[in-house]
Each structure stands twice: as structure tokens, then as C-alpha cells.
Design goal:
Length: 287
């Protein structure tokens, strides 16, 4: 509680300083953690810890222990945000694209990648993660199959983030050669984020991707996208189904699902912190 109050005071100071830029910031409401700290407690939980925000809708016999596997403090989340904001010490930039592994940039810094069906919201999620770096251009589209190449974004010397083409409908022809080879060969890959649409849940193609990740022995995490769009009942059904699947049928999957809305920034701050953590940029005590 004390920690929350301290963080809110910090946030209050920031708001005073930033009042003059309220117009452009209004379209990025809740993008920055100091804005989130202005929210009342219930709303704050929903935005920062969307999984925990759903607990109140669940029957008391539902085991939600895994909902808090990754349970950073608000100060950790705030510290992680600094990595996603360009500073005097680091820049955040699009770096390069590749359609084949031998075109992928040789980078030794830790890397994370985002995979999932076409149109699931991979590029939008990356755009939301980088919303505090407005010069970084990440292209999103309503048309499935928009991202055709592996796009590498560099966050200083800290880590690289890779936006992948989608699988399934309108996937690029060379998808398998490109993405399978990447997943199998990339030495500095620290975590793969497998995105699932909260409106449709697991699809056949997702199970194929999961089989592949399990076979390669790659550590991965489920992210549930577009939670602003899903009716609560459907959202809860898909959350429980995925959590249950992760627990019972996977080896390499992190036990906690990350629900996100790239439009409302729910879950984005926690995901930034998780990325900072898995890339070794935010050592933490309790995970
Ligand atoms: N409401 C809502 N719409 C979203 C969200 N994330 C993505 N979208 C929309 O979903 C569509 C597809 O988003 P993209 O981010 O381009 O999807 P993608 O997975 O990168 O797609 P491909 O590059 O084709 O594989 C766009 O119209 C986005 O605006 C979200 O969190 N909420
Ligand atoms: Mg895309």
C-alpha cells in the first residue's frame, strides 16, 4: 500500500510537468505507467494486472495460483518502463528485416519474438510496447498477412524484439522456412510470445505452433490479445482454457498467461516488465 502511495505521488509530479502536452497524450491514455498510477485501485488492477482483475468473476474453487507466477512490484514495473523510453543512454529503433535466416542481423544481445496467427495483433502489441518511443514505426493493418518479413527492433544494447509474419490465413509462402529456421537456430532468443486472439481462443494452427515450440524445446509464453473487444464471459472461458492447457499439456510454456489490449494498454506495463526480466535487464526476487 505504501509502495502504491509513493508511486502515485511520483505520478502526480509527472502529471504537473506534462499538462501542456495533454492533447497528443490523450490518444495514448494509459500508455505510460505514471498515468496508470492516477487510476483508482480497481481500475489500476484491471489495467496493470488484467488476469488478477478477472479473479472476482471466478468461482471460489477455481485455482488462480498461477495468475501470480510473475508478480512484480509496482516499482519494478516502473523501472522496466524506462527501457522502453528512449533516453540519452539508449535509442529504440527499427533495425532491419529478413526473409531468410542468413539475412537476419547478427546480434548477440538477448532477443524476444512474437508469433501467432495472421491478424492476431502481433504488430499492434509491439507498437503498444513502444508507444513511449513515438519515432519507432511499427506497421499494423486490418488485412491479415500484412507483416511479410521478420522485423527486428533494437532497444539500445539491452535487447531486440522481433515482429514475425503470421501463420494461418494469408501467411507468406516462405513462412515455414523463415520462422521455423529462426526459432530453431537463433542462439540469443530468450523467449517466444505466442499470441492468441481472445475472441476466438486456440485454433488448429495454434496447436501446430505449440507442437513446434515444444519439439524445439523453446521457452514460450501465451499472450491473449484484444481483451478490450471480448465479452467478459468469453474472455474468462478462453483465459481458463489456456491456463489449464499450459499447466497440463506443456513443458516449455510459462504457467501464467498475459492478457493484453494494445488499444487500452491493459497488460502492456506488466508485459514490458516481463520482457525486461526475461532479457536479464531487471533481476527480480520473486519469479
Ligand atoms: N480492439 C483491438 N484491436 C486490435 C488489438 N490489437 C490489434 N488489433 C487490430 O487487429 C488488426 C490486426 O492487427 P496487427 O497488429 O496488424 O496483426 P498482426 O498479428 O501483426 O497481423 P499480420 O502481420 O497480418 O500477421 C488491426 O486492425 C488492429 O488494429 C487490440 O488490442 N484491440
Ligand atoms: Mg503484423
Amino acid at each position: 500500500m505504501l509502495q502504491l502511495q509513493r508511486m502515485r505521488r511520483l505520478a502526480g509530479a509527472n502529471c504537473l510537468l506534462r499538462r501542456h502536452s495533454a492533447t497528443w497524450r490523450s490518444s495514448t491514455k494509459n500508455a505510460s505507467f505514471s498515468e496508470v498510477l492516477q487510476l483508482e485501485d480497481k481500475k489500476l488492477t484491471g489495467v496493470v494486472f488484467p488476469l488478477q482483475g478477472l479473479e472476482k468473476y471466478l468461482a471460489s474453487n477455481v485455482n488462480t495460483a498461477s495468475f501470480r507466477t510473475f508478480n512484480p512490484g509496482l516499482d519494478d514495473i516502473h523501472r522496466a518502463e524506462a527501457l522502453f523510453k528512449p533516453s540519452g543512454r539508449h535509442t529504440i529503433d527499427y533495425f532491419s528485416s529478413a526473409v531468410r535466416m542468413d539475412h537476419a542481423p547478427q546480434l548477440s544481445q538477448p532477443e524476444v519474438c512474437f508469433v501467432g496467427r495472421s491478424n492476431v495483433g502481433k504488430s499492434s502489441l509491439i507498437k503498444a510496447l513502444f508507444s513511449l518511443a513515438p519515432d519507432v514505426e511499427v506497421r499494423v493493418s486490418k488485412t491479415p498477412g500484412h507483416t511479410k518479413k521478420m522485423n527486428f527492433f533494437k532497444v539500445g544494447k539491452y535487447f531486440t524484439l522481433v515482429d514475425m509474419p503470421g501463420y494461418g490465413y494469408r501467411a507468406p509462402q516462405d513462412f515455414a522456412d523463415m520462422v521455423e529456421a529462426y526459432l530453431q537456430e537463433r542462439q540469443n532468443l530468450k523467449r517466444t510470445f505466442l499470441l492468441v486472439d481472445s475472441l476466438v481462443g486456440f485454433q488448429k494452427a495454434d496447436h501446430i505452433a505449440i507442437e513446434m515450440l515444444e519439439e524445439f524445446g523453446i521457452p514460450y509464453v501465451f499472450v491473449l490479445t484484444k481483451i478490450d473487444k471480448a465479452p467478459k464471459g468469453l474472455l474468462i472461458k478462453n483465459v481458463l482454457e489456456i491456463q489449464d492447457f499450459a499447466e497440463k499439456h506443456t513443458q516449455g510454456c510459462f504457467p501464467q498467461l498475459f492478457p493484453v489490449s494494445s488499444i487500452e494498454y491493459s497488460g502492456i506495463h506488466l508485459l514490458r516488465c516481463f520482457i525486461a526480466h526475461v532479457t536479464g535487464n531487471l533481476p527480480m526476487m520473486n519469479s
